[in-house]
Amino acid sequence: MSLKFVRFVPLLVAISLFMASCGKEDLVQPGEKEEEITKPGTVDVVENNVDKNLLLELVNNVRAKGCNCNGTWMPPVAPVKWNVLLELAAAKHSVDMKDRKYFAHNSPTGSTPQTRIKAAGFNYSLMGENIASGPSKEEAVISGWLGSEGHCKNIMNAGFREMGVGRAANLWTQVFGTSK
What we know:
180 residues, alpha+beta, 4-stranded mixed β-sheet, two-stranded antiparallel sheet, 28% strand
C-alpha cells in the first residue's frame, strides 16, 4: 500500500538504526537533545510502501501473547494503535537513510529520533525506535526485530500506546510513542 503524506511541520528531521539492540537508552523523556533542523512552514511529502494493517496485526499479536526477548520474558501488554504522525516520522527517516546512504538512529546532520518525532508534530511523553536494513517483507522485519532483545523489548513495552512504520527500499523504521 502506498501512502503519501502532505504535512505542515515546524521542523524537518531524520533518525535511524538497525537490528542492533535498542535498549533503555532509546526510551527518552521529552527535552533530551531536541534541536531545530528547518524552518516552520515546511511542506513534507513522503511516500511509504508498507502494509500498515499487517504490521499492526503482527505487532499486536505478539503483544497479546507475550514474548521471550532473548531470555527475558515479556508478559502480554495492551495493543498499540497506528499513528500517522509516527508513520510520517518513520517514513522520513527511512527515506533519509536511503538517500544519504547511512544506517543509524542519528542522521549525519545530527537529527535524532526525538527531534524527528517532534518535527512530525507528535508531542510525546515516551518514545522508542527500531530500525532494520535488508528485509523485503513486513513479516521478515518484525521477525528480525523480535530476534533482537532491545528491539523486542521496544515492541513489548507496555508504556507505548501508538506506532508507525516507514520503509524506503529495504530500510525500515518503526517508531513507538505515547502522547502527552
